[in-house]
Write a structure and sequence with these properties.
- This protein folds into 3 domains: 190 residues, 2-Layer Sandwich (Beta-Lactamase); 65 residues; 111 residues, no CATH class.
- The protein is built from 10 helices and 16 strands.
- Strands 1, 2, 3, 4, 5, 6 and 7 form a 7-stranded antiparallel sheet that branches. A 5-stranded antiparallel sheet has the order 8-9-10-11-14. A two-stranded antiparallel sheet has the order 12-13.
- It is elongated.
- Helix content is 51%, strand content 21%.
- With 424 residues, the chain is of the alpha+beta class.
- α8 packs parallel to α9.
- This is Histidine kinase.
- Keywords: Kinase, Membrane, Transferase, Transmembrane, Transmembrane helix.
- Pfam families: HAMP (PF00672).
């Protein structure tokens, strides 16, 4: 008989509480959505009221009266009027208000004309810009609201409504005063329904997140029951397998009982020991490979302590010696100086530039005059030369006399022959 299937405690708790939590989460999400939607609309109302009122207050009355006359004059050039200073200095603040508040349209208008209104100032740019004096028909409720604004000076705020030319909009209108103190028009601010829909979708998303958070809260409470024991042991098992596979990052530090923490600390110490031993082995192997490579290169380049006679004549002898200790760099410098010697033999004129051509960082040049027995130094630093009669310390450019009979000098156990013939 096959064993009877059982359900664990977490599954049993989820089966009991999850349906109730789902119902509560849906109700809570609906309440939150309605509240956020109302707040969103209220926010747009406040923004539109502030924008229309600010626009009406910023407009210069005398300029607006002049623009109204241009708008109602059928013979006036609308495009030319919009380029003149009265129009530009009033419309530019409106454009900044529109950009800062994220509005769709901002404008001023007057009642009358061939249709319901005539536009005066328009802060919209691009294809949706309306020229001064352009007529437009509006919904009856909006027209009634504009009349109330011109009669009482109040601010009209409309619901979301459809306008034939502009689509679904939410509109606010505030009074615009003329130079004589009377209300001569209205300042309008519109926001497209797509902007409201985006804000509404955000509210819907927040509501859904709240509902989801309620469901996750139930799962969280259930999982806390097994979290204190089961999860730490499971995580330590995963860390042990990861470390065994070669990943030596430290085990994760999570809240757990005292015994599980002790096990984690032991695993961390073991991991650190293994990682340190592995790093040391890699460093040691790299060091051995580097030493072997240097030995190989040294064997190919020759003796780094060799003396290279760059030029030799009966009257003058030019000798380069390595001043640094035995190293790969010194050996490469010796080889470079040997190649320079061959070039100097082929092109004696280069001897005038030997100070620039010779390696004076890893070596120095000694110039010996056979007739006067004078020894001079070409180098970047002072050099000590040993003779049978004592040591001679030369600074760059300094000259010393070599006693007669001295045929060999030394520098750090490197022998320097003063009378050896240069190789050909």
């Amino acid at each position: 008989m096959p064993p009877k299937k059982t359900i664990g405690i977490p599954g049993l708790l989820l089966r009991t509480f999850l349906p109730l939590v789902v119902v509560v989460a849906i109700l809570l999400a609906a309440i939150v959505y309605n509240a956020l939607y109302a707040i969103t609309l209220k926010g747009f109302d406040d923004r539109l009221i502030a924008a229309s009122a600010l626009t009406g207050a910023l407009i210069d009355p005398a300029d607006h009266d002049r623009l109204i006359r241009a708008a109602t004059d059928s013979k006036s050039d609308a495009e030319k009027a919009e380029q003149e200073r009265p129009y530009r200095r009033n419309v530019e603040p409106m454009q900044r208000i529109r950009d800062q508040l994220g509005l769709t349209y901002i404008y001023t208008q007057i009642a009358g004309g061939p249709e319901d209104v005539l536009y005066v100032l328009d802060g919209t740019e691009g294809d949706d810009h309306t020229l001064i004096g352009s007529p437009d028909s509006l919904p009856a409720e909006t027209v009634a609201g504009l009349r109330r604004v011109q009669q009482s000076g109040s601010i009209h705020i409309s619901p979301v409504e459809y306008q034939e030319q502009w689509g679904l909009l939410k509109t606010a209108a505030a009074p615009v005063y003329g130079a004589d103190g009377r209300i001569t028009g209205t300042a309008g601010a519109d926001v497209n329904v797509s902007v409201i829909q985006i804000a509404t979708q955000n509210a819907l998303f927040q509501s859904a997140m709240i509902g989801l958070a309620s469901i996750l809260a139930c799962l969280f409470v259930t999982l806390q029951i097994v979290r204190r024991v089961a999860r730490p042991i499971e995580r330590l098992t995963q860390d042990a397998l990861r470390i065994a596979a070669g990943d030596h990052s430290p085990p994760a530090a999570i809240r757990s009982p005292r015994e599980a923490r002790a096990l984690r600390d032991a695993l961390d110490r073991l991991n650190a020991h293994v990682a340190g031993a592995q790093d040391e082995a890699i460093i040691s192997a790299d060091r051995h490979r580097l030493a072997a490579s240097e030995r190989l290169l040294l064997s190919e380049t020759g003796d780094p302590e060799a003396v290279v006679v760059l030029a030799d004549s009966p009257a003058r002898r030019l000798i380069w010696i390595a001043t640094s200790g035995p190293s790969l760099a010194s050996a490469l410098a010796v080889r470079a100086m040997a190649e320079l010697r061959d070039r100097l033999v082929a092109r004696p004129a280069l001897l005038d530039h030997v100070e620039a051509l010779a390696d004076l960082d890893l070596g120095a040049c000694l110039v010996f005059d056979s007739a006067t027995r004078q020894l001079s130094l070409i180098a970047n630093a002072p050099l000590t030369i040993e003779t049978d009669s004592g040591a001679i310390r030369l600074s760059p450019g300094e000259t010393a006399h070599i006693p007669a009979g001295v045929k060999r000098l030394r520098h750090a156990h490197v022998a320097i022959d003063l009378e050896r013939e240069a190789p050909r």
